[in-house]
Fold each of these.
Amino acid sequence: MEIERKFLVPALPDHLDQYNSYEIEQAYLCQDPVVRVRRRDQDYFLTVKGGGKMVRQEFELPLPEESYQQLKAKAEGNVIRKRRILIPLEPYTVELDLFEEPFDDLAMAEVEFPSVEEAVAFVPPAWMAQDVTDDPRFHNSNMSRTVYKNHSFFTD
């Protein structure tokens, strides 16, 4: 079970180079259920996610690189590329995603929780702005489906 909230980050916090990070590339094979393949640095995974926004089922299995490449070639839509920075925020870890083209002006933070109660009670730091947990535009699976020019996708 995955319990997480997502926030837009309009201005990056200072000193990001002090935190661990990794590169992610992911492609979507199916939208219902969400099935994706992901490369995280040199590790490869197949992930299936159930319906829902803040709370949903998630299953992740390791893949050999060759299988990842074959499945990525069959993906629907765009490949999402981003750098994920891991920022400690006791007792949690903020996963700050800095996206590449065409979403290169987007920074989004995700926080995973052990319970719904903790997720609801969470008060984000000031640098995390609008809560977009329930906004389907900010699900990577939806972002993968269309290239948005001038990033109008993210403005209300």
Amino acid sequence: MNRPVTLTLLGRDGCHLCEDMRAALQPWAARFQFEVEEIDITGKAELEARYGWDIPVLLAGDAEICRHFLDTQALQSWITGQA
């Protein structure tokens, strides 16, 4: 991969969908050697206004890969586009 090797996972503490996406991302991150930075949007006015409870959201830079559930096809497309 030659572009961002860190993806951003936006969510909230106690969000079961966020926990599910975090767990689903772990084997992908290990296999394709990217990091996942988690950001809790609670108390971050701009992020709360933009996403509210419409989380989790997985981002590559400013580009959204998926939200709510890990979309493995979208993630694979991002990985393939990085090679």
Amino acid sequence: MDKIHIRDLTLCCIIGLYPEERIHKQDVIINVTMETDLRAAGKSDDLNDTVDYHAIQLSILDLVEKSEFQLIESLADRIAEICLNAPRVQSAKVTIDKPGALRFCRSVAVEITRP
């Protein structure tokens, strides 16, 4: 299966359970891998034969910037839904890093895969 990646999309949103996390936006780093068949696009060189990753990125931006999820798991699940609603996407893997979530580590991350 062919793959399209959106890598290291860094956005800010309200995310977390604790009161201090509900006041100020925090960075999240989003990575998405979408499985699809790219043979037709490779032959035709036509956007209509592939996944419009720009449109998906805009939908993710809109979701994340307006969101106030408590769990990064919930945010990841909604991003996967966006990907799977796009024509031709057969599965989506979403990884979200939350830098600074825990002391003494670079980030905490959640990775989900949805068929």
Amino acid sequence: MKYLLAAIFAACLTAASTAVLAATPDAGNASQQPCDSGYVNGVGGSAQSIREYMALPDRDKYRYVTDNPIQCQVGDDGRATGCTGLTNLQHEKASVYDDSDSATTTVATRVELDHGEVHAVIIVVPKQDFKCGE
């Protein structure tokens, strides 16, 4: 009798958890999974600069970008580190570095720094400015 009650309880538990998963929006939808690469169309930069930018009213965002251009330290090996400020990116290919934030994505992409030099940098972009794709 105990085994029968345990089996019925287990079956009910399984059915209930399946119903909850089925009722969850986009449950098991592979298109909702994060991607590995895509394109950035919009603003990107240091985490602090992006947070400040996103907190501003729309009327002040353009001025903030122009007043805070991206600046990075470029080492002898060509790596750009310690970036501050923001840059505008137009359909720039990027690889996802970290997608754990709900509002932003950290990506590795090419950015033009001082004197027209282009370097690979890791920057933060608002999620709405990043689109998955080949």
